[in-house]
């Protein structure tokens, strides 16, 4: 049964919870489920009326996530091992083939719904069509389908995406460095080629990032991302232009109606202040996205694990300063190299500079460096830790 169908409406009035989680993307669903499994009373709200709609991500999961998190196999596309990197003229792509399965594209609508079902089974109260609208101390204001509701919660978790309102209300850091990305998605048939991730580096189509086609034999994702103010004709036009000439789509007929996805991508690294006495941030709200690859699905799961541990300590030990251990400044250190590379990439502004970069990419050293970024294991600190509150306090 879809999650929306078994989601009770939040009654107007006042309710209580140990933890209010705002946002039922991957980060919010994960942290809410882990907390409920630990025995806490969790209310999870999202302004979307269905988790199968308004999807913002391509849904490429990297090998490390697939190894460490039990995502339902039936909602994942075929494994991808091949990446082709193209210069602006699309000629002579650099081909990188891994000897392991590196990526799988998730059917995100089904994955969110499966996540919501798992959350509900763990005891999470999920309320869709419910917008977080502000707070007064530890009373949080929601606007639901049946009207306004106040929630008195011990803690709030901001899992409300790159432009987090919860971060603003808690006085925490907010994402300032953002890319914007958009793509179209449609069904395709296998084309005789192995599932492939095509990446085009072209500062006119994707200023500061890349344009992509993922063709895994089931779906095509055709999109681009970059710094919003540097798209010469705007993001929408860039997607349309790319879609008309994108590589890897020979013999593919683009249907008239396609699914469109898009949204902001924080690339400034994990924010420094991501917690206070009343709550904390996870996922895009915390800036937990690889600044180089712009991949956020793996980091949002790992940071949510850490958040659930810290909140569990705070709720069971009742120590007011427990959330102080949830500190973004320490996590930023792991991103230092990738933040420098991101700054480097943001300076590649002309086709000539991109072509020069390709001269390097074609050398053995360049290929090795690109393989490390694309097939590496280091999307986010493996098991981010915070000191646990001593058992005697529990
Ligand atoms: C075009 C694009 C493609 C991408 N592709 C990939 C990819 O292939 N692989 C990868 O690893 N990463 C990718 N990313 C990044 C990745 O999608 C994100 O990092 C990740 O989805 C973040 O999850 P989240 O749960 O933190 O936020 P989100 O998925 O954005 O969820 C936030 C939720 O909060 C809800 N919300 C917001 N405000 C409120 C409010 N006031 N009240 C109630 N609810 C609210 C929203 O409705 C939403 O459901 C992509 C990003 C974009 C934009």
Automatic annotation (TrEMBL):
It holds the Pfam family NAD_binding_8. Transmembrane segments: none annotated. Coiled coil: none annotated. It comes from the Bacteria. One of its GO terms (molecular function) is FAD binding. Residues 142-175 form the FAD-binding domain. This is FAD-binding domain-containing protein. It comes from Streptomyces pilosus.
